[in-house]
Amino acid sequence: MLPAPMRCRLDPSGCTLVDLPPSQLPRWCWKAVERTLGGTTRWIDVPDSPDELEYADLTDLDPKTLQAKPPDESAWNAVYQRIEDIVDDVPRINIGTGPPGTPEHTGDIWIDSTTWDIYIATRKDQTNG
């Protein structure tokens, strides 16, 4: 018989303490459903241990095979991509002589160092002085 489902409420600091019996691999593992903003579902191995264990340190399992899953780097890749997108949206300030050529990014600023005219790209194919 598998353990019955349970709810764990987080305290105001986002913590909770739960006493769980260990998983019995390869027969069954724990399924943790995080019902929080941005939460996920994890299938985890709870080892037999007298010590308190951190939830984040528990081994994620493939629910079909109950084998340990390799670390998932997709979350880090998504964060990196978002940072890259933000950096790409930051206007560039360029200094040169004469009016600018075609700007690479909307919002780019071109300063003509001979006349001190300032041009701002309102679209990638347009600048205004």
Task: Indicate the topology.
Elements: E1 30-33, E2 41-45, E3 59-60, H1 74-89, E4 93-96, E5 109-112, E6 118-123, E7 126-128
Parallel strand pairs: 4-5
Antiparallel strand pairs: 1-2, 2-3, 5-6, 6-7
Describe the structure.
This protein has 129 residues and is α+β, with helices and mostly antiparallel strands. It has one helix at 74-89, and strands at residues 30-33, 41-45, 59-60, 93-96, 109-112, 118-123, 126-128. The strands form two sheets. Strands 4-5-6-7 form a four-stranded mixed β-sheet, with no helix packed on it. The longest helix is centred in the middle third of the chain and has 16 residues, at 74-89. The N and C termini lie far apart (75 Å).
> What is the topology, as strand order, of the major beta sheet?
4-5-6-7
Gyration radius, rounded? 27 Å
Overall 3D form:
elongated
**DSSP summary, beta strand count:** 7
Helix percentage: 10-25%
Encode the helix/strand succession as letters: EEEHEEEE
As a percent range, the share of strand residues is 15-25%
Q: Helix/strand-derived class? A: alpha+beta
Summarize model confidence as the mean pLDDT. Answer: 84
Largest sheet: 4 strands, mixed
Oligomer: single chain
